[in-house]
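Progress report, Aim 2. The chain analyzed during this reporting quarter is listed below.
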Amino acid sequence: MRKNPWWMLCVFSLFVIAACDDPVVTKDPCGDGFLDPGEQCDGDDLNGESCESLGYYIVTGQLACSATCQFDTSACGHRCGDGLLDVQEDCDDGNDYDDDGCSTRCRVEEGWTCTEDSPSLCEEICGDQMIVGDEECEYGLLNGATCESLGFSPGELDCTRGCTYNTAGCGDPVALVADHEAVAAFDGVDQADYAAVVERLNIYYGHTSHGGQLVTGLRMLDPLFDSGALRLTEEYGDLGHEGDLTWAGLTEAHLDGHPGTNVVIWSWCGGVSDNTPVGIQAYLDEMERLEGQYPDVTFVYMTGHLDGSGEDGQLRTNNRQIRDFCVAYGKVLFDFEDIESWDPAGNYYPDETDACGWCANWCGENTCGTCEDCAHSHCFNCEIKGRAFWWLLSRIAGS
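Predicted structure tokens for the chain:
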């Protein structure tokens, strides 16, 4: 039999390959009259949409398709949420949210009144027996609040004519103090408390080495509550020594640049031991000034760490000045000294230092957590500070 030349086999193979593959043609899909992924429209194909279906009021024209295959609504009329009050709208506040006075359908919501401006300005109707928006209360309606829930001693809570709480009939403000009892109370902190802290608090914390004990303590408790989820901004610095208010300027700069911050904490690092009543009062006065300047921020006061000077030493005298002020005026206090002065069994150590000698004895007889380093002290001292800190944050979050 006569064999085909080799070149004929090659030609035949090329013919088969060419017959199996269609030629690939690359072209711009926009403008080809077919809707492709990412296109809202293409030419005359508007995907069944119209000015009406997109929420516009037809006044001047019809929906079109742009050269980039996106809807061109320039010929449509007004739309609810564009901030332009149309005759078909009761209001238009320039957004598509409910519960702000003007609904997503541009109707005035119950309990509100809106202007005829463009955009409309809506405000709550105080005195209509409906608590909406930023109203705290209405006459006879306190929205579940009590003197105690607002941080006061028992008394008679009332509502002002401006629909805000009137606490004049309540008792004195009640201080929120994280001391050695808060260490034990940590066992009552649950996942709902943790979620509230993570969601609601944005914390600014200024500290050096001693104040870092709180952060180390938080991390030691990560198996229970992940501290990595906290919105916690750390500032290097502390409350300094007598008359030093550098921390206050840093606080103002941070709050002005980060308006979402709602908790501020500064720690001491030896600055209480060599302070005077005048210097301590300067600290207290500056904290109150900042509270007045930033009323939506919770400022946490703090006492200084132990130094071994005993019950009648300058440290405890100055700390008592801070503590008495906070209790008298209903402040929030992290009582650094008190926490490291008591062991979990209720034993008091008036002559202890920041090294926490009792911590080593306690952990020799009980199971304690471990850490890479607890500045100036024993890891258990950091752990109990972390426990008290979690408890305090959960109370501030109001869960």
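The two ends are 96 Å apart (CA to CA). Residues 247 and 299 are 13 Å apart (CA to CA). These observations will guide the mutagenesis work planned for the next reporting period.
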